[in-house]
Write a structure and sequence with these properties.
single chain, alpha+beta, eight-stranded antiparallel barrel, two-stranded antiparallel ribbon
């Protein structure tokens, strides 16, 4: 009897580990964006260029890695829900004059995106200049893996 219960618990443990692995595997959304202007992410200045953008729904984070310039930024985020499934991946910026702040990241094929917290720098600029202009930049899906030689 104890052996049967022990074997059943082992089986359930394996299923649980596999299920958690599947959830984490589905939590990342990766897109590539060519940003033609300098911008700010959580008080960090980022240069114009091509960025790999990874959103993690489980950990509520957004990671940007600059392909050409080696810059990177990590930001906490919260869920943003659209009324419909997004056809294209996109980055949404708030523009105050000539300053751009990354505001949202949307992956294609889902109605959930990530919204970044408003930084102190952006809050101060908003107080001084008023409402921002919203700028949406279309992005591509993840690039295919490089062939192994």
């Amino acid at each position: 009897m104890n052996k049967t219960i022990f074997n059943a618990l082992k089986g359930l443990s394996v299923v649980g580990v596999l299920a958690v692995g599947c959830v984490f595997a589905q939590s990342d959304h990766k897109i590539i964006a060519n940003v033609p202007f300098d911008f700010v992410v959580m008080n960090k200045q980022m240069a114009a260029g091509t960025y790999d953008v990874t959103t993690d729904l489980v950990r509520s984070t957004v990671l940007l890695n600059g392909e050409e310039n080696g810059s990177a930024s990590f930001a906490l985020s919260f869920t943003a829900v659209a009324g419909k499934t997004q056809e294209h991946a996109k980055l949404v910026f708030k523009r105050y004059g000539d300053r751009y702040f990354l505001s949202q990241v949307w992956s294609a094929g889902t109605d959930q995106g990530r919204e970044l917290q408003t930084s102190k720098m952006e809050k101060e600029l908003a107080r001084n200049t008023g409402r921002p202009e919203i700028v949406a930049l279309l992005a591509s899906g993840a690039k295919p893996p490089k062939p192994v030689r």
